[in-house]
Amino acid sequence: MGSDWHAVSAVTPIAVILVLIILRGWPAAQAALAGLAIALPLSIFVFGFGGEGDGIGMQFTGVVLEAGTTTTTILWIIFPALCIFELLRRHDAFDTIKQALGRVTDDPRLLALLVAWFFALFLEGAAGFGTPVALAAPLLVSLGFPPVRAVTIVLIGHATGVSFGAIGTPVFAQVSITNLPPLALAAQTALLHVVLCVVLAGAVYWLAVPGGRRNGALRPRVWPLPAAVLCFIVPFYGLAAFVGPELPTLLGAVIGGVLFAGGLALVRLSHPIAENAHGVAEGHGWLELSRSLLPYGVLISLILITRLVEPVRVLAGSVVWSWHLDDQFSGQVLPLSHPGTMLFLSFVIGGIVLGERGSGLVRCASLALRRLMSVVLALLGMLALARLMVHAGMVDALAMLVAEAAGPSWPVFAPMIGVLGTFVTGSATASNILFTDFQAETADILELPVLMMVAAQCFGAAIGNMVCPHNVIAGAATVGLEGKEGDVLRRTTLVGVVYGVAGGGLVWLLVAGF
């Protein structure tokens, strides 16, 4: 009876968060605080939190410090990423990208792959947090796509890269929680996407034309789909396995997009046109395109240098800021090698080269900061809840409940926990914060490989991005849809279920092979 009561108490805060967000429509920040307010007395009176060591006050201080440390490290990625986004918007970089795409093809299926696959993946890797839908969906509409279809295929197309979105933020959140090796976790997570991402790319390709219609100029062509997939997944997996979590999505999309666009351009050399079917005129050269994306070029260079050049790597890792409390709580930051530091340097260097003065950079930073404030409380609340549940033993109780119910079949369901977390919180990072400890503890109890189950969590959290109501509503708002969010969600849910079920099957097969 005692173990049952512990399990019910442990699941209550998470259940409250689900109800408040899904049924009551509360923002993630308010729901997280409500869950924390319920978890705290349960942790004290049911699990005995604070009964050892220096008492409740010191224990809760440790929880808040751990949550604050991880929140700060995540925000230091998001803030400069948004700074770069504001800088490029200030210099009309996205108009330049639109012009460049118009010169490559006028086939809507190929435009869909270029925008909803490569460009959306690039934006996800560079900034994340809703940026792909906010920029890529309106771009598709400007190229002639109906709004519902534009939002649908962007939500589907960018999901593969969400696991490494915003320079690897979701994975770094997991690393900070579990202390798993970043390189190993990145490689394992990427493997799941590499095997299955043809499902998402195929959906983008076939949904680009209503009803899959094929006629006239839109005669069947099979080669672009596998070509687009291969162009992305080869650098994507190579970067995840040999460099780390920062670059797989960002640089994989850049390399793949250039290769794919270059191939399409070669095909069109024999049919030059001044203006394509969508009215996109010639005007911006590749030099201007490169200049518009300069900050990301600087970022890629900095990350590669600090990861692959041994003396620089050692120097970057030599500065460590850490703290410890009561031999139970701790936090650590490597400021020189942190992706946020390199993002900020890229923002400053790129801004200077683009001709920005100090006031212009400050203006971009202030706009980014304004957007950042909306996620601070949600991140801190979710992290505080997660760390409290870990230190109180509530995650252990949840894991024991799941282990007893699912047993050896748990790998099949593990990705869906990640989907649920993102569906509820609106963020793959928040989903990983909420459920990574749970996945690790369940793996330990069932004697499953922890690395694989944590990777399954990250994989599932990425899928959740395409079905999360927050993302669907935000994406619909960028293209002026009103009252048609359900049309988008029905389409993305079908694809998400197929991808999630396939992911669960793949995780089970990989675990069985251990």
Structure description:
The chain has 514 residues and is mainly alpha-helical. The chain has 23 helices and two strands. Strands 1-2 form a two-stranded antiparallel ribbon. β1 and β2 form a beta hairpin. It is globular and about 75 Å long. The two termini are 35 Å apart.
Number of strands: 2
Structural class: mainly alpha
Q: Which sequence of strands runs across the widest sheet?
A: 1-2
Oligomer: single chain
Quote the beta fraction.
under 5%
Order of helices and strands: HHHHHHHHHHHHHHHEEHHHHHHHH
**Fraction in helix:** over 70%
Q: Please state the CA-atom Rg, rounded to the nearest Å.
A: 23 Å
> What ranges have pLDDT less than 50 throughout 5 or more consecutive residues?
273-284
List keywords for this structure.
514 residues; globular; mainly alpha
Outline of this structure?
This protein has 514 residues and is mainly α. The protein has helices at residues 2-23, 28-45, 56-90, 93-104, 108-126, 131-142, 147-157, 165-178, 182-196, 198-207, 224-242, 248-268, 286-292, 294-308, 310-316, 339-353, 358-392, 394-406, 410-425, 428-446, 450-464, 469-478, 485-512; strands at 321-325, 329-333. It starts with a helix and ends with a helix.
